[in-house]
Amino acid sequence: MKVKEVADLVGISVRTLHHYDEIGLLNPANTTESGYRLYDDRDLEMLQQILFFRELGFPLKRIKEIVGSPTFDRQAALELHRKMLLEKRDRLDEMIATVEKTIKHAKGEVRMTNSEKFKGFDFSGGNPYEQEARERWGDEAVDKANAKAANKEWQNEMGGKMNAVYAKLAELRHVSPESEEAQAAIKAWYDLLNEMGTYSLDAFKGLGQMYVDDPRFTKNIDQFGEGLAVFMRDAMAAYADRNRP
């Protein structure tokens, strides 16, 4: 299947599939002579696995480490996915019941205790799947992915740097994204992302496109200034194209 056919089948964007390929998470088995990606049944199985992990709250970097582990067992993973999704469904059912009872309480039809008002909420933090992931695929992959995330000082430092770059780019969003000042600012964004992970120029350009394709990205980024997501996409594309060897 070609990438557009897979995107239509699954209900995700072509850009998302390109991004998965660029970061080495899902590389299609073959390509045509013209360079078009071709996905086979095994690729579709892996994509399903990736999306199950995403549904359970795993970031792409961690998914790549887990499915790339030599001890990764797809059947065992599917069984764990089922278990965790059932638990998630039970918690959502409980929260729905809390909402419904709260509506009746607000109408004076029933009375709720204070503890009942918060039934179903879980603020314990962390990912409940993680311990089972450790047991199945070892601590190394999980610990590696968690090392920086667990460092609050590092998190705060990165958060401050990100906000500073966003603010700077927001100031420049009305100039040409290819201008020297815009490119200097977007280079700071590229360098910062590579402090937190590993981004090739292609992945950087693809990420910029996702800022526009995914409304969640657009909403968060445009909080710093209307149109910032589009400006960043264009500046990131220009930076990637300009700096290719």
Automatic annotation (TrEMBL):
Domain HTH merR-type: 1-69
Taxonomy, superkingdom: Bacteria
Statement: the UniProt record of this protein carries the keyword Transcription: yes
InterPro entries linked to this entry: DNA-bd_dom_put_sf, MerR-type_HTH_dom, MerR_fam, TipA-like_antibiotic-bd, TipAS_dom
Gene3D superfamilies listed in its UniProt record: 1.10.1660.10, Antibiotic binding domain of TipA-like multidrug resistance regulators (1.10.490.50)
SUPFAM superfamilies assigned to the protein according to its UniProt record, in alphabetical order: Antibiotic binding domain of TipA-like multidrug resistance regulators, Putative DNA-binding domain
Record's keyword terms, sorted: Activator, DNA-binding, Transcription, Transcription regulation
Signal in keyword set: no
GO molecular function terms noted in the UniProt entry: DNA binding; DNA-binding transcription factor activity
Protein name from the UniProt record: MerR family transcriptional regulator
Lineage: Bacteria, Bacillati, Bacillota, Bacilli, Bacillales
